[in-house]
Amino acid sequence: MKILKKRRWRPIPGEPLTEMDKKILYWENRGKLVPTRDLIKTPEQIEGIRRAGVINTLVLDTVAAAIHEGMNTQEIDDICMDVCKQHGAIPACLNYEGFPKSVCTSINEVVCHGIPKKEDVLREGDIVNVDFTTILDGYYADASRMFIIGKTTPEKEQLVRVAKECLEIGMEVAKPYSFVGDIGHAIEKHCEPYHYGVVRDLTGHGVGLKFHEEPEVAHYGRVGTGMLLVPGMVFTIEPMINMGTWKVFIDSDDPYGWEVISGDEQPSAQWEHTLVMTDHGVEILTY
């Protein structure tokens, strides 16, 4: 007896199939991973995420205006908290699974999840990723930027630039009814001439109604693999690019078990946007 696989995509009972239904079912019938209906955000939900994105952008703009040599990363955390409070928002990172601060500040070889502290003082030549997620009226928006402190080496400058290019290329490749693997393949291909490592253990993700939702957005992969991307899905692309190996480890000196270090302790860079898939491609909800 043939066992029928339970469908992920369910058309609305009693209503005719839409063009979206037909396209999703086409790919599901060919064995592809497709979204569930709850991953498709309503226009009202997208607008709520967009408003959270405005505050998230304001937070990062305020950090950009203030960041300087001699500043410690606790001061960056204080700025993020202050901007949130002024606009009735909540920092999603604060107390998330034990994370003790409101923002991630990752310096040089710290790939991600760096914990702000007074002891971490920014020095000339450092590169630092500031990653912030805003909750506003129950909606989430997530973005990060790289900052170069003063003048750094050509090698670090190139790493920061290429990491940003990876985000831009990933956004360009993300089209309606393409696949998550298309994004990862394009990013990995762009890094090959530089012999950079694309981190595999950490990914982008769905976002909007929760901090982390489906799909998992890997930044490496093969064309035509991963989840099908359809209009109404909201997700991040956030490639973490290492100057050396793609491998990472958790800093044993971090009592919280959060800080991720590049495997050979060479510098790492990351940029991130929250995006909504439209009928024509992605729209950026954070800057």
Q: N- to C-terminal separation?
A: 53 Å
Give the helix proportion (percent range). Answer: 25-40%
Q: How many DSSP E strands?
A: 15
What's the gyration radius in Å? 19 Å
Structural class: alpha+beta
State the major sheet: 4 strands, antiparallel
Please trace the helix and strand order, writing H or E for each element: HHHEEEEEHHEEEEEEEEEE
Instruction: Please state the average pLDDT score.
Output: 96
- Outline the low-pLDDT stretches: none
Q: Into which percentage range does the β-strand content fall?
A: 15-25%
Please tell me what the overall shape is: globular
How many helices? The count is 5
Give an overview in words:
With 287 residues, the chain is an alpha+beta fold. Helices cover 28% and strands 22% of the residues. It has 5 helices and 15 strands. Strands 1, 2, 4 and 5 form a 4-stranded antiparallel beta sheet that branches. Strands 3-12-11 form a 3-stranded antiparallel beta sheet, with no helix packed on it. β14 and β15 form a beta hairpin. α2 crosses α3 and α4 runs antiparallel to α5. The N and C termini lie far apart (53 Å). The mean pLDDT is 96.
